[in-house]
Automatic annotation (TrEMBL):
This is HDOD domain-containing protein. Pfam families: HDOD. InterPro entries: HDOD (IPR013976), RNase_Y/CdgJ (IPR052340). PANTHER family: PTHR33525, RIBONUCLEASE Y. It comes from Helicobacter ganmani. It comes from the Bacteria. Residues 12-213 form the HDOD domain.
């Protein structure tokens, strides 16, 4: 592995004590998990309580009533989802973000990241709420691999060289350029990071198959396709473009042919307005 990449991994900030305690309890307890013990661990951290209540009352989860206690949050989302959300939220808040090596505006990039989480929850909330809840942590971190590779390029002094070559290639084949400069592409790196932080195996496999969902096991095929569709639709260089929207629609059709139960009518209805407008212009 690229020494700079190893350094990037070794320099990852440690998880907060409460998050590590929660992760250890959930991973070691098997079938003997108790909601009361999860609540007790979370209750030690007022900042985490506030963040979980904020997330629970956000559009990501679409609960029909106000959630006011951690007991309610854990009961509504389930212990496994709580662990993954706590992990994802903690990780996401730990990084300074500068994606200029990719030729992207960081503010626009972050807005796109937020829109990805909104979309996956809006799309799946009524159709498959359990899947929506499970995939929110993945959507929250979908571009983390790109963020960390950008940091690595900046630290190594290769950011300008990478950007120049990226521009010369008209921002095509970015993954090949990442492999050339970093020894790994941002999607593969994200899968590695999910394993490094000990996310649930289902989420690790879902991320790992984001570019080849057809090759995933039947147990996580719907997860992989949902993430692949979202990844395609919000591709950082041309989010919600007609081309990427058509690719996303093709992926939903492919998923259906693979035996995955997606409602195409619901998907088209929940497409962001910008995607609908771009598709209309192309017709």
């Amino acid at each position: 592995m690229n020494p700079l990449l190893l350094e990037t991994i070794n320099d990852l900030p440690p998880l907060p004590k409460t998050v590590m305690e929660l992760q250890e309890y959930v991973d070691s307890s098997g079938a003997d998990l108790e909601i009361s013990k999860v609540v007790a661990i979370i209750s030690k951290d007022p900042l985490l309580i506030g963040e979980l209540l904020r997330l629970a009352n956000s559009p990501f989860y679409g609960f029909s009533h106000q959630v006011s206690t951690i007991q309610q949050v854990v009961s509504l989302l389930g212990i496994s989802n709580i662990k993954n959300v706590v992990l994802a939220n903690s990780i996401r808040s730990n990084f300074s973000i500068d994606v200029s090596p990719y030729g992207l505006d960081t503010g626009v990039f972050l807005a796109n990241c937020s829109n990805e989480v909104d979309f996956i929850s809006t799309w799946l909330q009524e159709e498959d709420k359990a899947l929506s809840n499970e995939l929110v942590p993945c959507a929250m971190l979908l571009r983390l691999g790109m963020i960390l590779l950008a940091n690595m390029l900046l630290k190594s002094g290769k950011a300008k060289e990478f950007l120049t070559e990226n521009q010369t290639n008209n921002f095509q084949n970015v993954s090949e350029l990442e492999n050339q400069y970093c020894g790994i592409d941002h999607v593969a790196f994200l899968g590695f990071l999910f394993d490094h932080w000990k996310f649930d195996e289902r989420l690790i496999q879902s991320i790992t198959h984001i570019e080849n969902p057809h090759a995933s096991s039947s147990e996580i095929k719907k997860n992989a396709y949902a993430l692949a569709v979202t990844n395609c639709l919000f591709e950082p260089y041309n989010p919600l473009s007609s081309f990427n929207s058509k690719k996303a629609i093709a992926l939903v059709n492919e998923a259906t042919n693979q035996g995955v139960d997606f409602n195409m009518g619901n998907f088209l209805t929940k497409l962001p307005q910008a995607a609908k407008d771009n598709l209309m212009k192309d017709d």
